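Researcher: First entry.
Model:
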Amino acid sequence: MLRTLIVDDEAPARERLKNLLSQNREINLIGEAEDGIKAIELIEEKKPDLVLLDIQMPRMDGFGVVRMLEKPPLIIFVTAYDEYAIQAFEINALDYLLKPFTKTRLERALERASQELLRKTAFNRNINGLFKTLAEQKYYIDRIAVKSQDRKILVIDVEDIDALITESGRVSILVGDKQYFTNYTLNELQNRLNPKKFFRAHRSAIVNLTKIKEITPWFAGTYKIKLSTGYEVDLSRAKVTELKKIFGW
């Protein structure tokens, strides 16, 4: 049996899914969540085989949930019409349910999930492909899930971010005097953040352009970027001309 979780912010949608799933003897429904943070907590606690995951949820969308999981289970994405997301699913052979879906369509997705459980390596590869495709489609994020020092899951607006940095191979996000951790790589974040607002200043740092306070000459053609918080980021020589064009200095 597939140990299954439902994640959807709309109670009627969860009830309909529960009713449909109860008619399938191969499904063991082990829980439900109404938002992304609760979903992550339940997935990490219960370790389901399958999650039916809504994409359009307030605060944290379904993609944000997946990105916070170190070892995501099988996922069937549930979505209202979103041409970019649907194209990404199809390119990477990941299943989705387009609302409103029929019982027959749900049964096909569940059958496929049962088969994929035996091919988990392929599923994980396709999940990685999904995020690459979304990045190529310029599917920018406006919120991001992070973990605090005490492992709490928080959702922050990207406009509040001062900088994103890599230290000892780990990516952290700076917001004011706080530092949070994410499972994204810096390259992935560069692709998922709007380039009109975020700038790759160095191979190990991305800065929010609205948070830059000073740009100071350093040495050998490099500069220092000082943010409004006082935090300083190196500006590599290769990026100087690009930043000059942005600010016109």
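Researcher: Second entry.
Model:
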Amino acid sequence: MVRSAETRAANAAMTGDLAALTALVRADQAPRVRAVAVARITRIAPRRAAAPVWRVAATDPAPEVRRRAAEVAPALGASVSCRALVDLLADDNPWVAEAAAFALGAHPRPTATAGAALIAAATTHPDPLVREAAVAALGAQGDPASLPAVLHACDDKPAIRRRAVLALAAFDGPEVEARLRLALDDKDWQVRQAAETLLTGQPA
């Protein structure tokens, strides 16, 4: 069974047959095959053809398929709705939620609802990986309304603090500069280095 699934996944990765790939996403018994197929169809199909198949994968019962759908979502641009990505951000599986956060950060048409969901994830999500991804997404979008959440993240775990400091590059104002200067004395050397890079204008 495992070998058969691996073979079908390998075949799915090679094939350019959109109908066959769509059938795999919708009905193959192995989550790995469905995940490979949605990634492949996203790469090779026109967005108008790939988007409906992507939506099927985004609601797949297997978390590895939903995660793969979130990971490839940026390739579809605005053909993937922010609403669908917000639903994935709320997924019970943290790996799915993390991938969805990054996808929202790359979305070309972010909505207010998406911004609010990222702010909530950055400040309250129980999994630090999701908080980190959400902070990165807020920095990528650079919405001034999200600055308080990014500043809040500057007091989180080291990896999140570093990500938050880097995200501050998208914002301006005395509050931002003051927080960067405070980060120069952070216990974590990567946080200090990120703050110094931004304050001196040197490339990271």
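Model: Note on the second entry: The CA atoms of residues 56 and 155 lie 38 Å apart.
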